[in-house]
Amino acid sequence: MSRNRRLILSPPSTVWGLLSAGHRYGEWVTGTQQVVSTDPHWPDVGARLQVRVGVGPLVLDDTCVVRICEPQRRLELEAKAGPFGAARIAMKLIPWAESTLFVLDWHPLRGPGTRMHGFPVDYVVSIRNGMMLTKLARIAVSEQRAGTGNGTGTGTHADDGAAPGGTRSR
């Protein structure tokens, strides 16, 4: 399992606005080349998000299914990546004064990832997820500063949106 934590200097409502806008996942989810389709009732339980992920010519279509949704508090997805199996992606938003403590847990459910689970794989996933939370924090802070903190704007800002001393752990 890989666990990342990030203090995002925006309230949970702003961060949730980004999570609940499925069409925007390509802006902050590292490795996403394109959001192919989003169920109109995203992020309700059972809703699907289809994305194309990869690096360069290595591309794979992936489907994320919402398994748990507690608006502005918790979103859990099952990411299905064809022959590579599936993983649980759990995101928790914890109010922290005017900010959000964002906790991201990733755990393989099926496929080769369950057998390769351990230090090398978890380390790589932790780095990827850390990059992803940095992007999410930048967008959330930018939108908060622009007054569009509902997750609908598209701006970015040089500040990474994290408090000093942000942590990443496995």
Largest sheet: number of strands, sense, barrel closure: 8 strands, antiparallel
Spatial extent as radius of gyration: 15 Å
Strand order of the largest sheet: 2-3-4-5-6-7-1-8
User: How much β-strand is present in the residues?
Assistant: 35-45%
Gap from first CA to last CA: 7 Å
- The helicity comes to 25-40%
Overall geometric form: globular
Write down the overall mean pLDDT: 86
- Number of E-state strands: 8
Commentary on this structure:
This protein is of the alpha+beta class and 170 residues long. The protein contains four helices and eight strands; from the N terminus they run βααββββββααβ. The longest helix has 28 residues, at 119-146. The chain is globular, with a radius of gyration of 15 Å. The model is unreliable at 151-158 and 165-170 (pLDDT under 50).
In short:
The protein has 170 residues and is an alpha+beta fold.
Layout of strands and helices, then pairs:
Elements lengths: L1 E7 L3 H8 L5 H4 L3 E7 L9 E8 L2 E13 L3 E7 L5 E11 L2 E12 L1 H4 L3 H28 L21 E2 L1
Antiparallel strand pairs: 1-7, 1-8, 2-3, 3-4, 4-5, 5-6, 6-7
Task: Provide key terms for this protein.
disordered C terminus; alpha+beta; eight-stranded antiparallel β-sheet; 4 helices; single chain; 170 residues
